[in-house]
Design brief:
Length: 155
């Protein structure tokens, strides 16, 4: 049986180890944040799958596009595809949580840039249906810049 002094010293050592672990890993997420982190990888794959579907839609042949009844240029489906990175950003608003889920801000910026690269010229040529895609892409880039800036000033 340990004396009170030995128990106190052991408790101090355990507390020191816990403080060091929390310093390394950062603040522990709340229950709601843990739920978002658990589904973060699913969210990441959702964004990737939507990008792949958008690429297939973009590069499908004219003959197949006509037989499927699709318009020559993407319209509302491009807006929906451009909304997925914004949805991911809204669900993982904190920059620290995006790093923990490995949903890199760079991936979201790349995907949004891809959508904007197609949507901006088409929208400027008169395809007004693509303006929401432009707005979503700009919102993602601005949101990531804002949250990363907040994280830098907080540290």
């Amino acid at each position: 049986m340990d004396s009170p002094a030995v128990r106190r010293r052991k408790a101090q050592q355990v507390a020191a180890v816990q403080r060091e672990e929390s310093r390394i890993t950062g603040p522990q997420p709340t229950k709601a944040q843990r739920a978002v982190l658990e589904h973060g990888e699913k969210l990441r794959w959702m964004v990737i799958v939507v990008v792949m579907l958008a690429l297939v839609r973009l590069f499908v042949s004219d003959r197949l596009r006509g037989s499927l009844g699709l318009l020559p240029l993407p319209t509302w489906e491009w807006d929906v595809a451009a909304f997925t990175p914004l949805l991911a950003l809204l669900l993982l608003w904190d920059a620290e949580f995006r790093r923990r889920v490995s949903l890199l801000s760079g991936e979201l910026v790349f995907v949004s840039g891809f959508y904007a690269l197609y949507a901006v010229p088409a929208a400027l040529m008169g395809h007004w249906q693509l303006w929401p895609a432009v707005a979503f892409s700009i919102a993602v880039v601005a949101g990531i810049w804002h949250t990363n800036r907040q994280a830098r000033t907080r540290d």
